[in-house]
Structure formats: structure tokens, C-alpha cells
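Hypothesis: this fold can be encoded by more than one sequence.
Test: take the C-alpha cells below, design a sequence, compare later.
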């Protein structure tokens, strides 16, 4: 199957950005690990990061035409603001898992609201880079059992 990993704004700074919250792994580390794990199970995985809301919306729309079967998305700051990115995911109707490195529920109150969680197959948060690996495991299980 074909998996797409989407990273929102400021995640390009992982490794140096507030490491006490987000850890020391870089985005390249995380993407390489996910790609290797997916390949080992016979799946294709592509990653995309942008700081721009329109670029994220465009990439989600493109996923409808490139046969993406499943999306892992860390909307980052857009989690709490972006009706447009939510609408794009609803429009393409590709199943997705919402991922966060930190646990937004244990932070500032404004992080408790997500425009994505109610549409998501599931949400994984609070485990640092492992959140992505756990989400990938869930996605692969879902793709295999088709439920
Ligand atoms: C984040 C949590 C968001 O609240 C924050 O804006 C981010 C990263 C996370 O992965 O923990 O940029 O999505």
C-alpha cells in the first residue's frame, strides 16, 4: 500500500526546537525510520513537510490522484487552527491517523482543541518520535485487516 506522512509547520526544526518537549531526533531521522519500517512490511511511504497551510492543503488534494491509501499527519500548529486542512482531509476521504510528539492535553489549554481528531481513525500523542512509529504500526494493521 501507499502511505503518506505529512508534517506541519516548524517540524523542519526538530532536533533543535524545544528539545525538552520534542526530543533530539531530526525530521530526517524520523522520516528515514518510518520509510524503513514501511518498506520492511512491503509498503511504500513518502514524507512531506511544509510551513505553509496552502502547501499542506495542496499535498492532501494531490493524495487523491496519486493513489495514497493512508495518511499519517502531524498538523503541528495547524492542529488548533486549520479548518482548511481539515476540510481537505474530509474532501479526499483518505483514512488518517493524527500524530503528535508531545501530549497536547498536558500543555496550554489552547492545544486541547483539534480540528482533526473527530475525523481521524485514531490519535497517537505524547511518545516523542515513537508516536510516529506507533501510528505507522496502527496504519499497517488497519490496511492489512481492512477494518
Ligand atoms: C505538536 C503539538 C502542537 O500543539 C504544536 O503546535 C506543534 C507540535 C506535537 O507534535 O507535539 O507544533 O503537533
Amino acid at each position: 500500500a501507499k502511505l503518506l506522512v505529512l508534517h506541519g509547520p516548524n517540524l523542519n526544526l526538530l532536533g533543535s526546537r524545544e528539545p525538552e518537549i520534542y526530543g533530539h531526533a531530526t525530521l530526517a531521522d524520523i522520516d528515514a525510520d518510518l520509510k524503513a519500517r514501511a518498506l520492511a512490511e512491503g509498503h511504500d511511504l513518502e514524507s512531506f513537510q511544509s510551513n505553509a497551510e496552502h502547501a499542506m492543503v495542496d499535498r492532501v488534494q494531490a493524495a487523491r490522484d496519486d493513489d495514497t491509501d493512508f495518511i499519517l499527519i502531524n498538523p503541528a500548529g495547524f492542529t488548533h487552527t486549520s479548518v482548511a486542512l481539515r476540510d481537505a482531509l474530509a474532501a479526499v476521504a483518505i483514512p488518517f491517523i493524527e500524530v503528535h510528539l508531545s501530549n497536547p492535553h498536558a500543555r496550554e489549554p489552547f492545544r486541547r482543541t483539534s480540528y482533526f481528531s473527530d475525523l481521524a481513525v485514531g490519535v497517537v500523542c505524547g511518545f516523542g518520535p515513537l508516536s510516529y512509529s506507533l501510528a505507522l504500526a496502527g496504519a499497517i494493521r488497519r490496511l492489512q485487516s481492512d477494518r
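The radius of gyration is 14 Å. The mean pLDDT is 97.
Hypothesis status: open.
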